Amino acid sequence: MMSESSTLDVRVRKRYPGFELDVAFTASRGITVLFGRSGSGKSLTLRLIAGLERPDTGRIVIAGTPVVDTERRLWVPPYRRPIGVVFQQPGLLPHLSVGDNILFGLRLPRDEARRRLEEVLTLLGLSGMERRSPRTLSGGEQQRVALARALVRRPPLLLLDEPFSALDQNLRRSLREELRRITGDLGLAVVFVTHSLPEAHLLADSLVVVERGRILQMGEAAETFRRPSTPHVARLLGWVNLWPAVAVHRDGPETVVDLGGRRLLVRGGAQPTPPGGRVVVGIRSERVIVHRGEASPAPNQFEARLTELLRYGSTATLRLRPPEGDLLLEVELGARALEVLRVGERDSWIVELPPEDLHLMPAET
Amino acid sequence: MNLFPVDWDVLRVSFLVAGTATVLCVLIGTPLAWAIARTRRVIVHLLTAAALLPLVLPPTAVGYYLLQLLGRQSPVGRFLEAELGLRLVFTWPGMAIAAAVVALPLFVRTAVAGFEQLEPAALEAASVLVGPVRRFFSVALPLAWPSVTAASLLAFARALGEFGATTIVGANIPGRTEMLSGAIYTAVLAGDDALANSLAGLSLVLGLTVLVALSLLLAQVRRNAP
Predict the structure, then answer these.
(1) In 3D, which of B14, B12, B32, B15 has the Cα closest to residue B151?
(2) Are residues A33 and A203 in contact, defined by beta-carbon separation less than 8 angstroms?
(3) Burial of A159 by CB count in 10 Å (0-12 exposed, 13-18 middle, 19+ buried)?
(4) pLDDT at position A262, please?
(5) Which chain A positions have a beta carbon within 8 Å of B139's beta carbon?
(6) β-strands A241-251, A278-283: how paired?
(7) Using CA of residue A297, residue A301, residue A302, residue A306, what is the dihedral sign?
C-alpha cells in the first residue's frame, strides 16, 4: 500500500542476534522525525533507506522508484538512490576543497555544476568558502558543507542521522531553524533521526516513535505529542504526570475517572473507555495551571503542597502533592510565571488540570 | 685496490628486479590491502593468510614453488613460453616475480594499516556519493597515499635484499641474473673478502637510504596530519 503523495514508502525487516527490526512507514514532504532511544533501531532504519545496510526482507520505494525489493531481488546501491544523506560526523574529504567536496561525484556539465554550487553555497551561508580546505572550517561550517553536498544533487528525499548532535547548543539551534527553512523552501521530504526530545519537538511535522526495532506510534507530530497511544509512548515523549485510574462515567466526549477517590473530568480523546475500565490518565507538565487563592467548585481543581522546586536555567519544575492520596504532580513553569507567582514564598497552591488537556490511555498490563 | 669494484650488471639486475617487484606489489597489493581493510566477511582471513604466507615460508621454498609453477614442466610455464614468448625461469622478470612474492606481506601489512586508519565517516559519506571504483581511486588512495608509499619503499628494500627465492628462480648467472645478494654469496664462496666487503657495504648504504627516506616521509605525514 502506498499513498500517491508519499516520497518514501518503507517496509523492512532485518534480524540480528538478539535484535529484530520490523518497521513500516511512509514519509511525505516536510520533516518526519524517527524518534527513539539509542539502540532502538532508528539509525538502522535510516541506513536501510540509504542502502548502507540490506534488509532480510522488505521493500523501499523512493519518489515512486523501488530501490529495494527482496521479493524481486532488487537492490539499488546507495550512490544510485535519489537521496541526500548527512550523518552525525560531516565526513568531508580532507584532500578536497569545500567546493570539490560539495560537487564530489556529481556528473554535470561545468556551467551547470558551477551554478548549482553557487546556489547551495548561498542557501547555506557558505558563499566565498568554496576554495577553503575542510580542515580550516568550524564544526558547524563543516556540517553545513555536508548538508550542501547532500542538497546539491536536488534529491527528493533527505536522510539526516543526528546531524547536529555533535555541535554546541547555539549552533544546533540555528542549524535546526535553517533546516526548517530550507526544507520548507525546497519542498523536500526529510527523514530525521534523533534521540533528542526538544529536537523532535522543534522539527517534526510527522513523528515516528521507535523502540526495540518496532514502531510504537506514528502520526502528525503535534497530535502524537498531545495524544500518545500508550503510557509508555507518553513517557518516551516526556510525559511525567501519568496516573492509573478507573473510568466511572462516560457522557459523549466527556469521561469522569477516579484516582483513588479523586474525580477528574476528561474531555475529548478518541479512546472510548467503558465505565469500570482501568485506564491511565495523564497531562503534560506544561499544561498544568497553578495559582494562588481558593479552590473553586470548577472541575479538576484542588489544593496541593509544593514539595520540591527544581530550577533549570530559565524554566523550573514544581513538584506538588495534594494533602490526601499519593498523587504526585509535576508542573513546568517559565521564568516569568515563577516571578509573577512568587513561587518560593508559599507552599500551598491551587492546581487546575484543564479537562481538554487531560488524556486517557489504556492501562498498562 | 679498486674502490668501487662492483659489476654494473649486478646493480642493473638488482634495481630491475627490485623496481619491478615493487611495481607488482603496488598493482596487486594495494587492491588486496583495500579489500582486506574493508571486508567484514570470512574470506578476508583467507586473503590475509594468503598475502602473509611468504612471511613464514623459507624464501627458498617460495623460490621452489615458483620454479615448479613457471618452469617448462608446468602448464603455466609452457603457456607463457609458447603463447607469449615469455621465459621466466633463469631471467630477471622471473626473479622480480619471486622478489615480489617475498615482499608482498610487508607491503600488504603496511598498506592495510593505512587503509584502516581512514576516517570511517568520510568513507561512509563517499559511499552514498560514488561507486566502489571511484571510492578507491578518489578517496581511499589519495587519503592513504603515505601508507602506500611507505609500503612501496619497504617492499623495494625487501626485494633488493632478497636472496633465496630470487637465486632459485634466477640461478645467479653472472651478468644476467646476478643481484647484489647473489654477488656477495659468490664473493664469499670465492674467498674474495674485499669484494664481499664492498658489496655488503653498498647493500648497507642502499638499505639505510631507503629507511631514512621512509622515516622522513612518515615525519612529513605526521606534520601534515590534522
Answers:
(1) B32
(2) yes
(3) buried
(4) 86
(5) 93
(6) antiparallel
(7) negative
Q: Give residue for cell 482501568.
A: A278
Grid cell for residue A31: 520533516
User: B-chain residues within 8 Å CB-CB of A136?
Assistant: none
Residue with cell 679498486: B2
Name residue, grid cell 556528473. Answer: A107
**What pLDDT is attached to residue A48?**
97
Residue B26: DSSP 8-state: I
Q: A188-205: b or e for each residue (b if 16 or more CB lie within 10 Å)?
A: bbbbbbbbbeebbbbbbb
pLDDT of residue A186: 86
Beta partners for B196? none
User: With contact defined as beta carbons under 8 Å apart, do A195 and A162 qualify?
Assistant: yes
* pLDDT per position as a tens digit, B134-154: 999 999 999 999 999 999 999
Q: What pLDDT, on the 0 to 100 scale, is given for residue A269? A: 66
State the pLDDT at residue A25: 97
Compute φ and ψ for B42, nearest 5 degrees: -65, -30
Question: Which backbone phi and psi does A256 adopt, to 5 degrees?
Answer: -105, 130
Contact state of A50 with B128 under an 8 Å Cβ cutoff: yes
A184 to chain B nearest CA, in Å? 24
Q: Find the CB nearest A135 among B124, B126, B226.
A: B226
Which residues of chain A are modeled with pLDDT < 70? 1-4, 269-272, 295
Element (H, E) at A333: strand A329-334
Q: What is the reported pLDDT for A334?
A: 86
Instruction: Name the percent of chain B lying above pLDDT 70.
Output: 96
Closest by CA to A52, choosing from A34, A67, A32, A35, is A67
Q: What residues in B contact A90, CB-CB < 8 Å?
A: 121, 125
Query: A79 and B129: CB-CB below 8 Å?
Result: yes
Q: Which residues of B touch A97 (CB under 8 A)?
A: none
CA distance B23 to chain A (A): 25
- Determine the Cα–Cα distance for residues A30 and A179; give it in Å rounded to an integer: 11
CA dihedral B142, B143, B145, B147 (to 10 degrees): -160
Candidates A178, A137, A185, A148; CA nearest to A29 is: A185
* Closest in B127, B138, B143 to A78, CB measured: B127
**DSSP three-state, residue B189:** helix
Please give the pLDDT value at position B5. Answer: 62
Question: SS3 letters for B62-102?
Answer: HHHHHHHHHCCCCHHHHHHHHHHCCCCCCCHHHHHHHHHHH
What string of DSSP letters covers A5-62?
A: T-SEEEEEEEEETTEEEEEEEEE-SEEEEEE--TTSSHHHHHHHHHTSS--SEEEEEE
Query: Is the Cβ pair B127, A52 closer than 8 Å?
Result: yes
Which residues of chain B fall below pLDDT 70?
A: 1-6, 224-226
Q: Looking at residue B107, what is its pLDDT?
A: 96
Cell numbers linked to B4:
668501487
The 10s digit of each residue's pLDDT in B54-96 is 999 999 999 999 999 998 888 988 888 888 888 888 999 999 9
Residues 6+ apart with CB under 8 A from A120: A102, A126, A148, A151, A152
Of the candidates B129, B143, B226, the beta carbon closest to that of A105 is on B129
